[in-house]
User: What shape does this take?
Amino acid sequence: MSQDKDQGKTGEKPPQIRANLLVAVGSNMSSDLGSPAESLKFAIKRVADAGAVIRAQSRFFRTPAVPAGSGPDFVNGALALEAAWSAPEAMSVLHGIEAAMGRRRTVRWGQRVVDLDLLAYDHVVRPDVATLRTWMDLTLDEQMSQAPGQLILPHPRMHQRAFVLTPLAEVAPDWVHPVLRRTVVQMRDALPDDARAGIAPLE
Assistant: This one.
């Protein structure tokens, strides 16, 4: 059989490239599904139903809202996924699940029934190091008033957020930030004590 015929067999598909994704999950609103924790369990199932393989899931943690006083405490967690999605496809899947569960992006950092944040896509920097650093260096006031019009990876504020790094350390402790060159555990431990105050596993 010729090589051309071998390559042209009907029904064959090229192998899919699968990527490793880190995703933060959070909620501070009850819903028709029940408590914030129940909403997160449902959202995680939807992520798996969409085609992702959940390699690791953290415990849920109760965390104070950020910035302080912006709403009720959150329930937060983290996932390590494997999926045959591009980074934009991953964002589309996560935002689609949020929307289906009633998330409305009307108030920045407001209360939400579910929040699914793509933290990292393998070790990809997107769109480039300079743009990422610009968003990483914003002040808190600037963060509250500005949102990027494009996908930024890794998440530009993940290294500053104890409510992200605490559960993330349970599923990807050795993942290294491609710009900061620090592991998740190192980034978590570098945060001041007051940043980690009030974070505790959900009983």
